[in-house]
Amino acid sequence: MKRIAILGSTGSIGTQALEVIACHPDHFEVELLTAHNNVDLLISQALEFKPNSVVISNDIHYEKVKVALASLPIKVFSGSDSIIQSVCSDTIDIVLTAQVGFSGLRPTIAAIQAGKTIALANKETLVVAGDYISSLCVKHNVKIIPVDSEHSAIFQCLTGEYNNPIEKIYLTASGGPFRGKSTSDLAGVTKAQALKHPNWTMGSKITIDSASLMNKALEIIEAKWLFGLEASQIDVIVHPQSIVHSLVQFTDGSMKAQMGLPDMKLPIHYAFTYPERISANFPRFNFLNYPQLTFEAADKVTFRSLDFAYYCLNKGGNMACILNAANEICNAAFLSDRIKFLDIFDIVETTMGKATFLAKPNLNDYFESDKEAREIANNLIKNV
Ligand code: NDP
Ligand code: MG
After folding, report:
1. Does a structural domain hold residue 289?
2. Which helix (H) or strand (E) holds 172?
3. pLDDT digits over 252-290, tens only?
């Protein structure tokens, strides 16, 4: 029996994780659920899965959750610090980090320090502080099992390879809703268009990031830290059908790919069962429904985010932290109609040029850089 904490249980990844757990009550038990604003869903999840504790990070909802769960032996806490404390409980084996954005960093650090296995969906944690997180994992002998579908694919391809060296990896990208569009086509696109992802149903932040290919940029950086790669070993290939989830090329030229229907439940399930595979009834891939699997080069001229990622990898230090902060601000501003789609690229790039660069940041520096970059990006937004 594996005892699981889900940080961000009310989101797209969180709810799918609970579906996986519900199918395997003999293998998994829910220990902790956390949410930010979606009180009603958190309450109904707690009533169904009966965790040891729940945390609602936005304090204003505490009373409602407390009252709703009063008749059950479930501990109820509120506030972000309570997530950090609850995640360290002795009764937890695996922590699924499915909070969105920078908010995932502190709880992930706490979980690593407490020796928990990390099922990592919150890619922003590795983007912001990949070097810090990697050395913390070594120090505490903690394994990160990727949940992001591309990284789960690479991880699955590497399982059983006994540290055989990687020549390079190919991260596949669907291309998002704006594949094939030019910069001038993108000038007036709306958030409704950007939110229509062709293959995946996800939270709004990552869906906008997929439209701008910023998601792929974050994934390039995530891959560097997960697999210890140089920038030159990470390539992106557009694969509109999202069936090949990513590929590894070894030093003998042999390539391994992991395939399956686009369904996040599969990488979540794998992260929970690793190193075993247990049976699951997910719909199976049928070749006849996909007579053609196609691949094409990514358009790095229109979608400048990809070059931003390589710039961050080559520059090192806190540059990816700056990229992430500026992107979170732009993403939210686009979703609230304060900037246009193409402004995202300009504001992120300008913020990367303006924020203080630190070659060897410590953990506190990351928090300071995040704050500074948010301020710069917000000021730029005021002037668009
Ligand atoms: P959602 O927006 O659907 O869910 C986010 C979750 O985080 C919700 O439970 C939300 O709570 C909670 N949350 C939001 N803000 C805060 C905060 N400040 N403090 C604490 N909790 C907070 O996101 P997704 O599930 O789509 O994505 C989650 C993570 O997984 C992201 O890092 C994303 O990049 C990654 N990921 C997602 C994939 C997907 O298919 N969705 C695929 C690969 C990676 P509430 O709703 O209660 O307000
Ligand atoms: Mg992904």
Report:
1. yes
2. strand 166-173
3. 999 999 999 999 999 999 999 999 999 999 999 999 999
